[in-house]
Amino acid sequence: MPPLLSKSYSSLKTLISTYPYLKFSTMSITLKSPVFAGNPIRSITPKPSDPCSPTSAFQTLKLLLSGQTHVQEPSWPRFKVLPFVKGRPLAGSSGDVVKKWCLGWLSFGEFKDVLEGSEVKLREDLLVYLGCKDDEESVVYWGVDVSEGVGLVERLRRKEFCFVELRTLMVATDWADDDAMGQLAIAGHARALLEWHNTSRFCGSCGEMLVPAEAGRRKQCIKDSCKKRVYPRVDPVVIMLVIDKENDRALLGKQSRFVPRMWSCLAGFLEPGESLEEAVKRETWEEAGIEVGEVVYHSSQPWPVGPSSMPCQLMIGFFAYATSLDINVDKSELEDAKWHSREDVKNALTFAEYEKAQKTSAYKVDQMCKGVEKGQNVASDFNVESGELAPMFVPGPFAIAHHLISSWVHQVSSNGIQTQNKGVHSRL
Ligand SMILES: [Zn+2]
Question: Quick one: DSSP state of residue 60?
Fold first, then answer.
């Protein structure tokens, strides 16, 4: 159901510049695809005969590294490499007034130059195939983990690049910038794949080594009698906005790790042998003591910024309609959970705060790449000083929770009339 008040972020910017006196703090922000989805180089995998396919590109890579050719760099398709250190992609910054981050893609030749004399010896099994852009200038993209090369950080810093937490890049991304959103999705996929390689070193069946196969898209046990194939791990998580239809309220929870004033949807991992609907009901009951009846699917989002033991979670979002209203919070899971009116939740969609956090983070990335700011603290991204702080806010547009909440706040009925005050009227 299309949200009545939704504006694309770019048209929102136009509106703000045209009518600066209007309050846009409660507008919803609609994205073309969830953050970390919509990866522009993850199209259908080319057939093995295509030079851009994982198989063919990997053959070219092996030839380049074998020393059997004097070619330093393939001319077609070209190769681009994105280095990572401990899950952090190489990034740079541009823009004089409005800072904008970019990924630190290196040509294959540049990458080899940077590695020369470093602790990292370039081997074919270090590079993982990320995808290709098969337009007029075909490019194959690779990710590489160079965490062992301590000296590399300094070499790359000379190019005004630095390794930045993906979460910081996520907050620093301008949602109106399709190119930046695409780059973020590529970095998310690459991080997920490389972290999975890092944490899947041995065979779960026989304990022997696992080695990369299919250009790093899976792994395989080296023991002849085993040869077990292992595929990248995805951890499904249900995330739900629990709704009290009768009183027009939504249940939001607060975790101790959240930044102050932030409330969000309840969420939890799917257990083996459980349906998504069952997981929604079980988690809501366990965390808040609320019973759920109808469960309606909303959307999903890849989430590659969780702990490295879970290289990529898949957030699966639902509306969950409550059949009981008394809250009983499990303090080991949640700090607090409360019913909030639609109006309060609407006010918590504080656009001004998301925009400020985005600009603060983009500036932070710029300063880090110039070597000014060494540390980074994602939690501080939202601790912006302002005289107009909302009493509560919900996660920014980079999180599926934002879109679940925003969809409910701006929900329209089938006849197109906003149902905003329906519950209030029914009580009068
Ligand atoms: Zn094995």
Answer: H
Euclidean distance between the first and the last CA atom of the chain, given in angstroms as a whole number: 27
Is 17 among the domain residues?
Answer: no
Residue 224 CA, ligand 1 centroid: distance in Å: 8
What distance in angstroms lies between residue 213's CA and the mean position of ligand 1's atoms?
14
The whole domain housing 396 covers 235-350+390-427
Q: Are residues 107 and 178 in the same domain?
A: yes
| d(CA 126, ligand 1 centre) in Å | 21
Contact 320, 273 (CB under 8 A): no
Cα 218 to ligand 1 centroid, rounded to whole Å:
14
Q: Give the tens place of pLDDT for each residue, 233-258.
A: 999 999 999 999 999 999 999 998 88
Give the contacts of 281 (CB within 8 A, at least 6 positions apart).
Answer: 291, 292, 295, 320
Q: How far is the CA of 129 from the centre of ligand 1 (A)?
A: 23
For residue 8, being part of any structural domain is answered with: no
pLDDT confidence band for 158 (50 / 70 / 90): low
| pTM reported for the whole predicted model | 0.86
Q: Does residue 49 fall inside a structural domain?
A: no
Strands (E), 105-200: 106-107, 127-133, 139-145, 162-163
Domain boundary among 230, 256, 286: 230
CA gap 397, 403 in Å, rounded: 7
CA distance 374 to 62: 37
Report residue 144 as tokens: 């590489």
